[in-house]
Design brief:
heterodimer, A: four-stranded antiparallel beta sheet, 8 helices, B: mainly alpha, Cytochrome Bc1 Complex, Chain C, 10 strands, about 5% strand, globular
């Protein structure tokens, strides 16, 4: 801190002299332009003309009356525009007129009050002294005195054993409060690794649950699929569906790039992939037929359907898990097994067996 | 003690006396009744936030009477024909009933949603105002932190409320939250199952969010609001620089009657405008989305605006950065956006302390800066705003691509690049603009305003006559605090500490480019020069 800035801190206002403040890097400017003081007050029309004043009074009154009318209209609208069940037009009218009445009731008061303040109440700016936020030295001394007295009377710093055991007690007492939240949710680690798909489960249409025959699936068509038997009244329906949802697509078998171990997972160009994005779990619901790309509408992760659903764009990293499928003796598409890895977003120990 | 100069036995005097004898209200009125509040349009932003919060409390209370936060399965039998017979949760069904069967229900739902959007928007703009005018400086650093907490709580209140109707859109929002939580190493799965009460979506989340939304979060907001306003009263409001306005005074209108009328009236205006918007503009038409189902999703889904920047951060994460450590999965594609968002928020929260440490200015500041007079701070703010804006726009990459018929991939990649480059551009441009504006101010202060009057002097020179400023106008241009960089200095032991070095280079970063305010001497000299020219002009005219 430079000497002149200290001087400035002291000199610029007498009330600061009691307490010296560091100005830091601030440059003292002894040659600063002198403050000319507050700007002169500008007289308003309502101050100098009785006619304008009376007009303003009338305007404010009119606004308050308008507010009353608005509120009264809202009461009227509540009964005059009831909702007839099933009639969406009546919902619209009820909302419209009730809302308009309340709006008028509110804006009338608001604009009226502000207009009153701006035209009829004094508009002279007033200057008031500020005080330093810190207490005066006297007050601080008194506060310290109280703390010392409290310390002396309680023996807080003298009686070390009491003080330290109190700290210990205070440290321990919140722990039960934390642990009782332990039952917020059961451990679902095992459940995250399994879905409703079992060997032989038929592939069914979402949401009507009708099983799909391989012959129904033409090249280029897309089916949103759930396991057969999963219906809205099934226990844990949404949890099951959130894991088991599958997208079924048939492409020209020659376009499929399949690893040898997955060659048997598709059926005549029909492939089934988990619909749950491996990024944060949105349904990957958009299929672009001519590029065979699957796009997640939430964060635009893009998967290449014909190449193992590998990520070709977007924030996801892992390919969509593939459901191994085949056909049963009646020609229906069935799962060979459950998914061989956990579906959906990554989690810490998803690869731990 | 008599309270008011009202005639004896009047109802008003009687009431005042009754209240004072029991509450001692006269002392409170004496202390606060004529408290001075400065007036400026930008001070209304915080008021808008406060009032929309009150509207939220009112409309929210109404909604609780009709809403049923249960995820129990039901078959819809209400009055909205397209969904008749659909399986849905009780929460969704009761939200539909509020919309279609309760008079004023849809109106109140829309009032609640619009005022939530306005609350976060006004709080955000209020924060920007406080930042760009330096209102966070001593003694208000802690109040900045309190305000920051309020802003974050506002987002929390918004998100917990957004998910309550249990419609398809909000369900997908929760799915994303679930995925994000699972991406946290080691404890992520436990956090997710703890929140959802087991597997996603479970049957607990809506009622749990409901408890948070109507009890915990609003209670916290009220507590921090009380702290915020308490400190406002302690500090007294700041005022803009100008003649008569000093760090040692406060210039404005008294609380009673002017401010009570203006601020009270403004509450009704804010309420009225929200009501007007809610009357005419549909928000969150949950009946269009259907109940939550993990399988379908609609393209072009958007979160409420204040969550957008977080969603954008998720979208802008580069492809394929998730990796394995042994058998364990590290979801960097989720952690990176999370960490970046948290670092950004932390930087916002601690900024006042950083600037205070660099300037070392320990005095109280009650006069606001014009943004141009703190070029580096303003530039930092502009860079922050740009960073936030790119993340925000990032949440709409798909809409931008489809509406402007561009490649989604290119839009996203250019956003990724912009996120890194644009804040630097914004910093540089803003800083130069501020310095240019300061130079212009200085020029006007010293030489006066250009009058547009061109005069030819006898020796052939053309000059434009400059008119001196009114002293009040002049003072507005020269009244600001001026800082200069420092060098690393050895401490008492004669050692130059790392801290001292960092502070020196930070001070260089902040104040290397500085325009000092015009001094009285400079102005006098210029005026003297002006007089000489004027005399010359006069002489020339007379000699004609």
């Amino acid at each position: 801190m430079s000497e002149d800035s200290k001087d400035l801190a002291k000199a610029s206002d007498s009330r600061y002299s009691e307490h010296e403040y560091d100005l830091g890097l601030r440059v003292a400017n002894p040659d600063a332009v002198v403050d000319p003081g507050l700007e002169p007050h500008r007289v308003r029309m309502t101050d100098k003309s009785v006619k304008h004043e009376k007009n303003a009074v009338r305007q404010v009154t009119a606004l308050f009356v308008l507010s009353m009318l608005g509120s009264a209209f809202a009461l009227y609208a509540y009964f005059a525009f009831p909702i007839e069940l099933g009639n969406m037009g009546s919902v619209r009218l009820n909302t419209l007129f009730l809302g308009l009445g309340i709006t008028l009731g509110l804006l009338g008061i608001g604009i009226g009050a502000v207009h009153w303040a701006k035209t009829l109440m004094p508009d002279n700016e007033v200057s008031e002294e500020r005080h330093l936020t810190r207490g005066s030295d006297e007050k601080r001394a008194a506060a310290v005195e109280i703390i010392n007295l409290a310390n002396q009377e309680s023996g807080f710093s003298r009686r070390k054993l009491i003080r330290r055991t109190l700290y210990g007690a205070l440290a321990f007492f919140p722990l039960p409060g934390l642990i009782i939240f332990g039952d917020l949710g059961p451990n679902v680690n095992e459940k995250l690794r399994h879905t409703a798909w079992k060997p032989g489960t038929r592939l069914a249409r979402d949401p009507n649950g009708r099983a799909i025959k391989a012959s129904d699936v033409t090249v280029g068509s897309v089916f949103h699929v759930i396991p057969d038997g999963l219906m809205p009244d099934t226990e844990g329906y949404l949890e099951q569906k959130a894991k088991a949802a599958v997208l079924l697509v048939r492409v020209d078998p020659s376009e499929l790039i399949e690893t040898p171990e997955r060659a048997s997972w598709s059926y005549q160009g029909i492939v089934a992939y988990s619909k749950i994005c491996t990024h944060v779990g949105c349904p990957v619901a958009l299929y672009e037929q001519h590029t065979h790309h699957l796009l997640c509408p939430c964060h635009q992760s893009t998967f290449d359907l014909v190449n193992g659903c590998k990520v070709i764009f977007g924030p996801a990293t892992r390919p969509l898990p593939q459901l191994p499928i085949t056909v049963d003796k009646d020609g229906y598409l069935v799962a060979q097994s459950d998914f061989l890895e956990p579906v959906g977003p990554s989690f810490w120990d998803r690869s731990v067996k | 003690m008599t309270t008011a100069p009202v005639k004896k036995n009047s109802f008003l005097a009687g009431t005042a006396n009754y209240v004072d004898e029991r509450v001692g209200v006269a002392g409170i009125l004496k202390e606060f009744g004529r408290k001075i509040f400065p007036d400026h349009w930008s001070f209304m932003l915080g008021e808008v936030a406060l009032y929309s919060f009150l509207v939220l409390l009112l409309s929210g209370t109404f909604l609780t009477f009709f809403f049923n936060p249960s995820m129990a399965e039901t078959i819809y039998q209400g009055s909205y024909a397209p969904l008749k017979g659909a399986h849905m949760s009780v929460a969704y069904s009761s939200s539909l009933d509020i919309s279609f069967e309760v008079r004023g229900g849809l109106l109140m739902r829309q009032v609640h949603h619009w005022s939530a959007l306005l609350f976060v928007a006004a709080a955000g703009l209020h924060m920007l105002r406080v930042f760009f005018t330096g209102a966070f400086r001593k003694p208000r650093e802690l109040n900045w932190v309190v305000g920051f907490v309020l802003f974050v709580l506002g987002m929390a209140a918004g998100f917990t409320g957004y998910s309550l109707p249990d419609d398809l859109l909000s369900g997908n929002g929760l799915r994303i939250i679930d995925g994000m939580m699972k991406g946290i190493p080691v404890i992520g799965t436990s956090i997710s199952t703890g929140l959802f009460g087991g597997e996603f979506p479970g049957t607990a989340i809506v009622s749990r969010l409901y408890s948070l939304h109507i009890m915990l979060v609003p209670a916290l907001i009220l507590v921090f609001l009380a702290l915020h306003l308490f400190m406002l009263v302690i500090h007294k409001h700041t005022h803009y620089s100008g003649p008569g306005k000093k760090d040692t005074n406060v210039v404005g209108y008294p609380l009673m009657p002017v401010y009570v009328a203006k601020a009270g009236g403004f509450f009704f205006i804010v309420f009225g405008v929200i009501m007007l918007i809610a009357t005419f503009f549909t928000i969150n038409p949950i009946w269009n989305y259907g109940g939550y189902d993990p399988s379908p999703v609609s393209a072009g889904t958007q979160p409420d605006w204040y969550i957008g920047w977080l969603d954008g951060a998720l979208r802008l994460a580069p492809t394929g950065i998730e990796f394995m450590v042994g058998n364990y999965t590290v979801s960097t594609n989720i952690l990176l956006p999370l960490v970046i968002s948290l670092v950004f928020l932390a930087a916002v929260a601690i900024y006042p302390f950083i600037e205070n440490w660099v300037t070392g200015d320990k005095r109280e500041h009650h006069v606001l800066d014009r943004p141009r007079n703190a070029p580096t701070r303003t530039a930092i703010g502009a860079a922050g705003v740009t960073f936030y804006a790119v993340l925000w726009a990032g949440a709409s990459t798909d809409l931008i691509a489809t509406n402007f018929k561009m490649s989604l991939n290119q839009v996203l990649v250019s956003m990724q690049i912009s996120l890194i480059i644009l804040p630097f551009v914004a910093f540089f441009v803003t800083k130069r603009l501020c310095l240019a504006l300061q130079r212009k101010d200085r020029e006007i202060a010293i030489h006066g305003r250009e009058s547009g009057r061109i005069v030819r002097l006898p020796h052939g020179e053309y000059i434009e006559v400059h008119e001196p400023l009114d002293p009040h106008d002049l003072y507005k241009l020269v009244d600001f605090k001026d800082y200069k960089p420092t060098l690393a200095r050895p401490n008492a032991d004669g050692r130059i500490t790392v801290g001292s070095r960092i502070r020196a280079s930070m001070s260089k970063f902040y104040f290397e480019d500085r325009i000092s305010p015009a001094t009285q001497t400079e102005i006098d000299e210029a005026a003297h020069h002006n007089h000489e020219i004027e005399a010359e002009v006069k002489k020339a005219i007379e000699s004609k």
